[in-house]
Amino acid sequence: MKAILHADREWGIGKNNGLMFRIPLDMQFFKNTTTGNVVVMGSNTLKSFPGGKPLKDRVNIVLYPGGGKRDDCIVVGSLEELFAEISKYDTERVYVIGGQMMYKTLLPYCTEVLVTKVDAVGNADAFFENLDKNPDFSLVYQSEPQQTNGYTVVFTRYKNLKPLAY
Prior knowledge:
nine-stranded mixed β-sheet; 4 helices; 11 strands; globular
């Protein structure tokens, strides 16, 4: 399982249950990476999508304790149910996409984290752990800085040196 996100200079990932930045290059990377795969999210992330609808062309698994079953995505009520559900898929094709609590809960189980670093401060109210200060993670890839939509972004990949099994 992997995590995918964008973060500002302070490792901020969101504001008011939404994205801080609309960066087409990052959105295209996210779409290209997750399309045809499995995305795992919390209920607030699902609610933040247009119309509260899951992402197209992906298997959407939502951890939503007390949430009702839906035809357009897989709703699970506990971490145990979540792990049972994602174990049905190739773990290399499973991506955690938010929000803050899902990232915090599932980070130890992720083998990799794909972070689009945005050289800006988005005044976030939701944050991701600073992987540069976590000894269990190693930066294994970093693109050249790219200018897009008035922002400088760097695509990075971190490897978890001690992923937990689920």
